[in-house]
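batch job 7 of whatever, protein = C2H2-type domain-containing protein
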Amino acid sequence: MCDGCDDDGWWIPDSQAYKDHLRNDNVCTTCERHFDSLNNLRHHKLVHLKPSVECYGCTRSFTTYSGMIIHLESGTCTSGIDILDLNKSAAMCYCCKLRSCRKHELC
């Protein structure tokens, strides 16, 4: 049933007990991998998400916004975007709420 449980000698008597085990013992319900804390399990679950955050500079996608920012800051983006470009894109014009406003020069 569960690779981690088999290694530890666990025996799950029925499907409800198995579901309870997955929920209560920090086990990923997708791949049945065991984790020592709920926080580690939550972090792991990101690997199963479909990447939906597109890079500003290239065609790569990431599961989190912070993953995309790390990609850009590390210099691995083929577009050549660097930290200064990121800072400029984060600036927002208070007059019209645009990120790159030339009309108001970011007020």
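notes: Strands lie at 53-54, 61-62.
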